[in-house]
Amino acid sequence: MSELSPHAGRPGVIHDLGYRHFDGVREGTPAIARTLFTTGLRHAYGLGRSGKSKVMPFVLLAMSLLPATIVVGVVVLTGLGELPLSYADYTNRTQLLVSLFAASQAPVLFSRDLRHRSIVLYLARPLPAPVLALVRWSSLTVAVFLFTAIPTVVLFAGAMLSGLDKSDQTTAALKAVALQVLLAMLVAGVSGLISSVSLRRGFAVVGSVMALIVLTGIVTVLQNIAYYEGDSESVSIGVGLLSPWSLVNGLANAWDAGVDTPVPVDGAWVPAYAIVAVLLVAACLLGLVARFRKVGSR
Amino acid sequence: MGQPPVISTAGLTKHYGTVHALTDLTVDVGEGVTGLVGANGAGKSTLIKILLGLLEPTGGHARVLGHDIEHESQEIRRLVGYMPEHDCLPPDVSASDFVVHMARMSGLGASAARERAADVLRHVGLDEERYRPMGGYSTGMKQRAKLAQALAHDPRLVFLDEPTNGLDPAARTDMLRLVERIGSDFGIAVLVTSHLLGELEQVSDHVIVLDGGHLLRSSATGDFLQQTGRLLVEVVGTESERDRLGEALAQRGLTCRPRGAMVAIDPPPPELAEGGAVHDLIRDVAADLGLGLMRLQPDRRHLEDVFLEGGTRV
Q: How large is the ipTM?
């Protein structure tokens, strides 16, 4: 017969341990920034959020993948000698979906914290406001980049399967990927800045759609009018500086990545396009940092 | 002795254009619970935001836990927790997930953050509802969740800005008890603001009074509530019994005045003050009159008096 201590015999006793201090390792700023980046990237695709917030990003992704799989199927089955459109042009043709993805997911990363003022809780923690803004932007940039890069990977895999020239395809695909990085930075910057200013989700989405889709439509129309009606090549190219998509497409055209513009972009226009693109990204980032600082101090 | 103050400010000033939110504030805050009292707009929240590095002061210096706010604000933000006055909870996230995330944002690893979040939510008293989205919470539950995120990373100091705001009397008492426990049982220094003086009287060791951005007074709560030397006596019965006692005591040479249902007796003359002679006298008088003595207590000052005094000084 074993002698039990008086307490051991009573099952289900809740022991109040009292308050326990934490004396484990505390991570530094880079590790915290990495955590925030990963969380942001997951949230952009609805992962770690409610079930219905996964619908929009994945439906858009499926829609942008569908043509790529069809193209791959056709190329593999019919044995075409080349892809019917270039990798960079594929991204350009699916620009509506890419823009919609950015417009719908930017508010998740930029409006929520500001609108519900949880930004203050972030700013009362180690990450400084500029780092916070940059990390948020990086999450969205990578999310948009993945959105455009996944179809490229599918197309590239199809091209390899059907035995197209490996070095040609690799060069074209890498060009497309480089352009996609720039595009993602621009699109994330513009839609992020708009979302951080207009805190109502609806307004933010509409604002981003205006800036990314409607503006690009207007720019394209003006480019064509200037070229076909006004016979002015430089006006046609110049107007292209006004929207993220026309900037990237202009650079793609100059780089011979298989994207047509009404007038070929060459000469001094190439550095002009590159400089405007970089300035636009920088301006968006500065705007985001200023915005985060301002809301945080209220 | 020799312990540096948790917070020390020197000539801290913050002006928004022509609005002077804080003027030349020089004050030290020690361990335990410190109450920061002032009317709305007295500069309480501004002070906290400056100490956190969210606002830049117009002038002056401050140190928090030995770190300078100007150059080491990141280090300060590692060590402090902050519960803002306003709503700051995203409605579509559960308290559990949110507190875990906030703990990670303070540098805790994934498993440590989960463990701490569960601990802290238990301490603030959020049970099953911690798994529900916070949008559906009552004000009391929201305040608890806000407090939990401030404690998630086991800070050395927490700033609690109006933690009892919007709470009903029962929830208010609960919250104040929690604040007291944070200061004593948890061993975390607390700077808690309120515009209700009575609340802070109950829980704080030290009280700082701000008025229009100026320091009105800073001292231990005991000093605020120091005894005035007056006595308060209450007898069974109505006002007529009260007056009978008062008149009888006045005949014995004590200065009496009615206060509510009680008789307030001014500090007695020296021959009666010694050895509790005045207490015996009151007991005898009440017995002679056949009155039931219900209460005999020293009269204390209230925090309100500080404002009244301050008001006359300005």
A: 0.86
